[in-house]
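re: ur question from yesterday

yeah so i grabbed the chain u mentioned. its 135 aa long if i counted rite. heres the sequnce exactly as i have it in my notes:
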Amino acid sequence: MADFVFHHAGVSVPDLDAAIAWYQRVLGFTLEKRFYIEAARSHTAMVRKGPLRFEIFEVEGAALLPEDRRHPPRDVKTHGNKHAAFQVPDLDAFLAEMAQKGADIAFVVRESFGKGCFIRDCAGNLIEFVEEPEA
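ran it thru and got these structure tokens back, copy pasting raw so excuse formatting
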């Protein structure tokens, strides 16, 4: 089998500049580059935080995110890509920081198998953060 590693996740948003600012302010990403994809009619940016990248698309004439895609338990009832997930060392500290930054906290899970949360970016896209349970 060919070797491969994760490169990036992508989200579509209605306002590229607002999304770049949100990913910088709330999650600490920096702008890596901006470009236009002619075939998709998309103004696009790649933001980066260490080895993590998000590709953000502002596509001409794109539809808004459907309401069911904004809530994790409803979102998983529709086939397709769901979200990117990142590990945090302390979920409670992360939630406190997100609340302080005014992030839209969509869902918090605290179960015997682990705990995590979903936040929504400025366009409603879900992003998951998990704290690994202690061994």
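noticed a couple things. The radius of gyration is 16 Å. also Residues 64-135 form a domain with the 2,3-Dihydroxybiphenyl 1,2-Dioxygenase; domain 1 fold (CATH 3.10.180.10).
anyway ttyl
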